[in-house]
Amino acid sequence: MTTYAFSPPVQPSVPVEGSEAVFPVRRILCVGRNYAAHRAEMGGDERDPPFFFAKPADAIAPLMNEVPYPPRTADLHHEIELVVALKSGGADIAVDDALDHVFGYAVGVDLTRRDLQGAAKAKGQPWEAGKAFDFSAPISAIRPAADATLDGAIWLSVNGVQRQTGLVTDMIWNIPEIIAEASKLWTLAAGDLIFTGTPEGVSAVVLGDAIAGEVDGVGALAFTLV
User: Which residues are listed as membrane-spanning (predicted)?
Assistant: First the structure.
């Protein structure tokens, strides 16, 4: 029997819709600039291949009505995203086999300390302070793949005013392609979450703002920054 020096941390997890089971989170991968209009507003090239960054598993903030506004930022941004939850994985997964590894889908928000991210990018430094902070990944319950549809709208509002809107089908790299590309860089496994990118309209939010988002056929989430 393993003897730990202290009690292991609690396993981060996300509720599964319609079940008492929870989805144990292994890691969080995020795709950058995967909608053409958002890529344009951020200064990217449509022909760029997908790129990835990561958040720690404990950045997840499942079904939270209140999310803490993070410290050391004056420019916090919202990014609504479709999230893919994997039940299995591997390396060098073929595009045609990728959906066989999907457990389900959720709605997530990639919260970003844009000022810290921008400062790091300008110096050629890593993005963790801008992207991988505590509670930076609010998420809905996971809907099993068999119960989800993926051809609808994705949107986010702040205080009842719509800020982001698009279609899941607007993604430059689709879900099977994202899984296949990620598996060239990491050996994927059950428990991995992949945030698949955000449509145009990302902008700043402040303390007290009420944020709501939805992906048709997948789910919705809502929280207030406190």
Answer: none
Per the structure, the complete domain to which residue 208 belongs is given by 13-225
Encode pLDDT of 174-204 as tens digits.
999 999 999 999 999 999 999 999 999 999 9
The residues, any chain, with a CB within 8 Å of residue 207's CB and separated by 6 or more, are 69, 225, 226
C-alpha span between 176 and 99 (Å, rounded) = 6
Q: Is residue 2 part of a domain?
A: no
CA atoms of 169 and 173, how far apart (whole Å): 9
CATH of the domain at 42: 3.90.850.10
Q: Is 200 exposed, middle or buried (0-12, 13-18, 19+ CB in 10 A)?
A: middle
The domain tally of the chain equals 1
3-state secondary structure of 93: coil
Say whether pLDDT at 42 is over 90: no
Q: Which residues of 3-13 are buried (b: 16+ CB within 10 A; e: fewer)?
A: eeeeeeeeebb
Q: What percent of the chain has pLDDT over 70?
A: 95
Q: What is the pLDDT of residue 46?
A: 61
Of 64, 69, 43, 79, the residue nearest 158 (C-alpha): 79
Angle, CA of 122, 155 and 87, to the nearest 5°: 85
DSSP character at residue 170: G
Cβ(82)–Cβ(218) below 8 Å: yes
Task: Locate 216 and state its tokens.
Answer: 């048709």
Q: Looking up tokens 């720690």, which residue turns up?
A: 56
